[in-house]
Structures are given as C-alpha cells and as structure tokens.
Amino acid sequence: MLFANAMAVRQEYYHALARFFAANGVHVLTFDYAVPHTDVTVTDWVKDLEEMLVEAKKPAPELPLLYMGHSLGAQLIGVTPGNSAVNAALHVTGGSGYYKFNHRMPVLVRMLWFVYMPLFTPIFGYFPGKALRAVGDLPRGVTWQWRRWCLQPDYLLSVDGYREAYQLFRTPILSISFEDDDINTKNGIDHLHSSYPNVVRRHYHPKDVGQSRIGHFGFFNERCREPLWDEMLDWLRRSVSASIPTVRIPSRV
After folding, report:
1. Strands, sheet with 86-92, edge to edge from the N-terminal-most edge strand
2. Considering the domain boundaries, does residue 107 fall inside one?
3. pLDDT confidence of residue 210
4. How far apart are CA 130 and CA 180, in angstroms?
5. How does DSSP assign the chain, residue by residue?
6. Is residue 91 part of a domain?
7. Phi and psi at residue 90, in whole multiples of 5°?
8. Looking at the domain assignment, is residue 141 inside a domain?
9. Rounded CA gap, 49 and 161, in Å?
10. pLDDT > 90: percent of the chain
11. Would you say residue 252 has pLDDT above 70?
12. CB under 8 Å to 111, separation ≥6 — which residues?
C-alpha cells in the first residue's frame, strides 16, 4: 500500500495509520515529495508519485496494490502515469482546491491566494507558510502552479488532458470527508470526485463516529482507529476481493 501525502505534510504524520495497516498484513510504503530546488512544481511531484507506484509493487509484485491519498494525494493519483496498477484507493479529505468552494474560511483563503502568496513568495524565494501558519513552507514553483489551479473553477482539471485522465482511472475509490473540515469542504470534495468514474463517497459528522473533532487531519490520529480505520480496511479488503477473487488481504488483528 502506498501513502501519498497532503501538501506540506511529512510522511511521519501518517505513521500511526501505516502501523495499523502493517499490523493487519498490509505492506506499507510512505514517502515525501522531492524538493531538489525551489522551482520544483506539483507536476514534478506527479513524476515522484509515478516512481513510487513502481517502488510499491517491487516487494511483492503478485499482490494487489492499494493506495491512500490524503488531500493532494487524492487529487494527483488520477493524472499519474501507471495508476492502473492500483487495485483500490482510499481518498481522505481530498477535494478541489478552487477557493470559492471554501465557505468556512472565505477571508483567509482570499488572503492566502491574493495577498500572502503574491507578496511573500517573491521576497523569500519560496512561500513561508509555516511562519504565516498557512499551509506550510512551499517551493516557489509549487506555490505558483498550485495558486493558478486554485483560482480556476475546475482546479487541476483545467489542465489539458487531466479531466480525460481522471475518467480513465477506473480503480474503485472510497472517498471520505468530514463535516468539520475547514480546508476541503464537502462541496469541493464532491466536485473533484464527480470526475472519477468509480467512487464510493462517505461523509461523516465527527459525533457520529464518537469524535468531537476530526477536520482535515484528525483521521490519522490513533483515536480514529475505531470505527473509521477498521471500516476503511474492511472496504479495501472487499474491493480487492471483488476485483481479484483469488487474492485476499489478511483478516484484522
């Protein structure tokens, strides 16, 4: 199983969930997008993801390949060459970045795209999001490309060929979202996943799964193991069994 990160999130953030899957018999590979220079773009990260799909298959080529994409990771898999190798995908809080979809923080998102990024990126040579407590530090190339997408109603699907690529990605996807997510709201997640052809959508209110707060990042906390992590594992197992009847993911421990 390959884990693909959200924007500006390090692989260590996902280690609790990775350990859960590993304890249940799933080989897990995590990674960080490469930043060899400040002009690296999100398109370059698609190439990273393509290479990691190949790496994820190497230890056991005969086994099905699972995928977990958080936010950006859920957006990029649809345009990544070689994505047909994925047998089932879990998308966590992955939605369109178009700024008008975010009705929870309308002032902040407009400050981000129209003030902070255009003002500070040329000064520092990168976007100092960590100091601003907005997203995180981003390379200059990523900043400009991502900003351009987020000002388009179709987000990354405004790029030539990307919508068609999404429609060709027929792998079963379970896309989950949370009512208290202030970053990717339900309408943006619904919009993005309407372009994937084989999606199951589940939208949760935290209180319905015994949580007071989940938001954009809380799913990866150990406290969400029951029932959410167990549900996700069960869905992945059923999806793989349906598509490859002779293959089984080991039962939970």
Report:
1. 2-4, 65-70, 86-92, 173-178, 199-204
2. no
3. 94
4. 22
5. -EEEPPTT--GGGGHHHHHHHHHTT---B------SSTT--HHHHHHHHHHHHHHHHTT-TTSPEEEEEETHHHHHGGG-TTGGGEEEEEEES-----GGG--SSHHHHHHIIIIIHHHHHHHHSEEEHHHHTSS-EEEHHHHHHHHHHHTSTTGGGGSTTHHHHHHH--S-EEEEEETT-SSS-HHHHHHHHTTSSSEEEEEE-GGGGT-S--TTTGGGSGGGIIIIIHHHHHHHHHHHHHHSTT--PPPP-
6. yes
7. -110, 120
8. no
9. 18
10. 93
11. no
12. none
- Count of domains in the chain? 1
Is 144 a member of any domain?
no
CB-based contacts of 193: which residues, under 8 Å, 6+ apart? Answer: 91, 94, 95, 173, 175, 199, 201
Residue 241's pLDDT band (cuts 50, 70, 90): confident
**pLDDT value, residue 39:** 94
* Domain at 32, CATH number: 3.40.50.1820
How far from the centroid of its chain's Cα atoms is residue 211's Cα? 22
Range of the domain at 206: 2-97+160-243
Proportion of the chain above pLDDT 70, given as a percent: 96
The pLDDT score that the predictor gives to residue 36 is 84
Query: What is the reported pTM?
Result: 0.94
Q: Would the pLDDT of 245 be above 80? A: no
Q: Residue 180's Cα: distance from chain center in Å? A: 17
Q: Does the pLDDT value for residue 253 go beyond 70?
A: no
pLDDT, one tens digit per residue, over 114-157 is: 999 999 999 999 999 999 989 999 999 999 999 999 999 999 99
